[in-house]
Design brief:
Number of domains: 3
Structural class: alpha+beta
Number of strands: 16
Strand content: 25-35%
Radius of gyration: 27 Å
Order of helices and strands: HEHHEEEEEEEEHEEEEEEEHH
Helix content: 40-55%
Distance between the termini: 48 Å
Oligomer: single chain
């Protein structure tokens, strides 16, 4: 904990979110109020209908509308009650040096070096910078086994990934480099493993000297040099299915430069 506290000293805040039970409490009682008012109107309509003061077709329409409103508000009330009971008050604060996460009486604090796996598993539909619909979660698995999921309830997940990715990429890239120096492989996907001499895709090995890696439209693109010296795409992975994709790209980029000095010095790479 002391290392995390030192890592978080005088940090720059890049993302924060606060979740409380109060909105769910308000939604629950609002739904109950709507149900009560609708039932009252329902019984009043039933009474005047039986007295013949209102056309029967109108009462039928009114009963159907009331039933639909009651059903909808009942579902809303139960969901709000469930969330009010099960969810804890939370406060998330992400910095350039790490993050703190408070859940009820539990408080966690980590530097980025404590991230074991970062998986960008969220997607969404956006109108400009505004999220219209989001699903999935960005998941941080820490070296001590703690798991944190940043879900749509915490705000704009695209922005979250954008602001924290560089810091996590640097930390996880360093961890991968350390593992490779110790002659250990790092598995990022069931079909993708990084080794000291290059990467392995299934049963195919591609050395650093013949490899190109890039991110393209939420895809990790792996390219290999063919017999003519041109880079051809051999595999595309969704970033949602690759662990520590940012760290891998950072590590691969620097390692490839070291193994392909002539390509980058002359800027004559033939990538297609």
């Amino acid at each position: 904990m002391m290392n995390a506290e030192r890592a978080l000293k005088n940090p720059k805040l890049v993302f924060q979110a606060t979740i409380t039970k109060q909105p769910y409490r308000r939604r629950f009682w609002f739904s109950v109020l709507i149900i009560a008012a609708t039932l009252g109107a329902w019984f009043a309509l039933d009474r005047v209908g039986k007295q013949g003061l209102v056309d029967s077709k109108l009462t039928d329409i009114g009963w159907l509308a009331a039933a639909a409103i009651v059903a909808l508000m009942t579902v809303r009330a139960f969901l709000s009650l469930y969330r009010m009971i099960t969810r804890k008050n939370e406060s998330l604060r992400f910095f350039d040096r790490g993050f703190s996460w408070t859940r009820g009486d539990e408080k966690y604090q980590y530097g980025w070096g404590k991230v074991d796996v970062f998986r960008e598993g969220a997607s969404g539909i956006y109108l400009g910078k505004r999220p219209l619909l989001q699903w999935g979660a960005h998941t941080l698995t820490m070296t001590d086994g703690q798991i944190f999921k940043v879900t749509p309830i915490y705000g704009d997940l695209r922005r979250f990934a954008r602001v924290v990715r560089p810091y996590i990429a640097e930390a996880t890239g360093v961890q991968m480099a350390r593992a490779l120096r110790d002659e250990n492989g790092v598995q990022l996907h069931p079909n993708l493993t990084v080794w000291p001499g290059g990467i392995e895709i299934g049963k195919r090995e591609i050395p650093w000297s013949g490899l190109n890696v890039r991110l393209e439209n939420n895809r990790l693109v792996i390219q290999a040099k063919d017999a003519k010296g041109k880079f051809k795409t051999v595999k595309r992975y969704s970033v949602r299915k690759v662990a520590n994709v940012g760290g891998f790209v950072e590590l691969a980029t620097s390692t490839i430069r070291n193994h392909q000095r002539e390509r980058f010095e002359n800027k004559k790479a033939k990538v297609s």
